[in-house]
Amino acid sequence: MYWDKEKECMPQEELKNLQLRRLKEIVYRVYAFVPAYKEKMDEVGIRPDDINSLEDLKKLPFTNKQDLRDNYPFNLFAIPMSDVVRIHSSSGTTGKPTVVGYSKRDIEIWAELMARALCSAGASKHSVIHNAYGYGLFTGGLGVHYGAERLGASVIPTSGGNTKRQILLMQDFGSTVLTCTPSYALFMHEVIEEMGIKPSDLKLKAGIFGAEPWSENMRREIETKLEIDAYDIYGLSEIIGPGVAIECPCKNGLHIAEDHFIAEIIDPITEEVLPDGAQGELVITTITKEALPIIRYRTRDLTALQRDKCECGRTHVRMQKVLGRSDDMVIIRGVNIFPSMIESVLLNIPGVEPHYQLIVDRIGNLDVLEVQVEVSEKIFSDEIRKLEGLRKTLTAELESALGIGVKVRLVEPRTIERSEGKAKRVIDKREF
Ligand code: DLL
């Protein structure tokens, strides 16, 4: 077991005191060592001495992805490069990549948080962890890897790709825990079937999936198909990587490691801090990071916080499953739509496979949403009339859930591109 009850079940009062002490330290540190923070704080007339309660956090300016880009590559680091022991980076598909750095102690804390996360999802030193998150600049692979070693489990560092070989290894090595994106887990299941293997022939018991949004219906789908218990894990490189938050066996939200991070929810438009329970954008402040401390980072992820007691005994605040990133939200005729909303509807209908893509286009002056979804082999070989019936049902269900007109296109099994990492759900062909 790697359950640090002293920290994870710390009484709220004590936790708040610890957070405040750490927050004050970090604010002093960024003010002293990171010119960009000093400049921003000076601009609004806030000095480190002004932070005397957790409420005072509100006074500090936000940090966002643009700040990381503007300070590319290392200008937000708060320690000398000689003390930086690891660098990760985003792929930079939407602009300059964002770069994050770690001190030796940051890596230790990350490993500890990941060990805690794996333990929360039922892993132990007896587990064989098949880690198919990508190794490299992406934080998924190495993040899980160090946590698994810290836990004392046996980790298989397969990274993504070469799926058939992965499955043979899983079979031969008796892997008990699978870690990868939920979309890759589904793809693995397809390959398992193609290879004539039954999930029950494997020893897999649990999966720890994250790095992209996935709905409750997707969880059910994966759990049934792979015959495992599926847990949600959340994180982002800017904050530390995977391990910022993890579900416990109660699966009623993801506990955020509050001894290292302070979470807030804001209205993404007005930037006003919202009360617990309200849905909005998650904002995170790191309170122990040495190399890249981040104050009030706007994650763009939409969720809500819950503080009521959790049966597992952990006292750390829970965030709801992420609805989506504001970047993935498509606005169609004024309606905000997240892929996860569509996923929930699709997966409630028998005959539909959990592979879909949204194509957004502008025809004339009108925005049009097409939902392409795969249907099962059996349905596809049925008569046209049945397919048409399914298409109509899907259209009606989607239109009633979203409140806009939708075009549904049923496609043959295995025609939508599979992903070994984060799935691409939206193709926006509109020109702005
Ligand atoms: O995806 C870190 C990670 C690796 C998390 C492995 C979990 C497992 P980035 O590549 O920086 O880091 O992407 C971070 O991915 O802001 C969310 O939009 C999304 N994301 C991560 N976990 C979840 C999740 C890693 N459980 C971005 N549910 C975040 C929904 C998630 N979205």
UniProtKB/TrEMBL annotation:
<dbReference type="Pfam" id="PF00501">
    <property type="entry name" value="AMP-binding"/>
</dbReference>
<keyword id="KW-0436">Ligase</keyword>
<protein>
    <recommendedName>
        <fullName>Phenylacetate-coenzyme A ligase</fullName>
        <ecNumber>6.2.1.30</ecNumber>
    </recommendedName>
</protein>
<dbReference type="InterPro" id="IPR042099">
    <property type="entry name" value="ANL_N_sf"/>
</dbReference>
<comment type="subunit">
    <text>Monomer.</text>
</comment>
<dbReference type="Pfam" id="PF14535">
    <property type="entry name" value="AMP-binding_C_2"/>
</dbReference>
<dbReference type="InterPro" id="IPR011880">
    <property type="entry name" value="PA_CoA_ligase"/>
</dbReference>
<feature type="domain" description="AMP-dependent synthetase/ligase">
    <location>
        <begin position="78"/>
        <end position="285"/>
    </location>
</feature>
<dbReference type="InterPro" id="IPR028154">
    <property type="entry name" value="AMP-dep_Lig_C"/>
</dbReference>
<dbReference type="GO" id="GO:0047475">
    <property type="term" value="F:phenylacetate-CoA ligase activity"/>
</dbReference>
<comment type="similarity">
    <text>Belongs to the phenylacetyl-CoA ligase family.</text>
</comment>
<dbReference type="GO" id="GO:0000166">
    <property type="term" value="F:nucleotide binding"/>
</dbReference>
<feature type="domain" description="AMP-dependent ligase C-terminal">
    <location>
        <begin position="334"/>
        <end position="430"/>
    </location>
</feature>
<keyword id="KW-0547">Nucleotide-binding</keyword>
<comment type="function">
    <text>Catalyzes the activation of phenylacetic acid (PA) to phenylacetyl-CoA (PA-CoA).</text>
</comment>
<dbReference type="InterPro" id="IPR000873">
    <property type="entry name" value="AMP-dep_synth/lig_dom"/>
</dbReference>
<dbReference type="GO" id="GO:0010124">
    <property type="term" value="P:phenylacetate catabolic process"/>
</dbReference>
<dbReference type="InterPro" id="IPR045851">
    <property type="entry name" value="AMP-bd_C_sf"/>
</dbReference>
<dbReference type="InterPro" id="IPR051414">
    <property type="entry name" value="Adenylate-forming_Reductase"/>
</dbReference>
<comment type="pathway">
    <text>Aromatic compound metabolism; phenylacetate degradation.</text>
</comment>
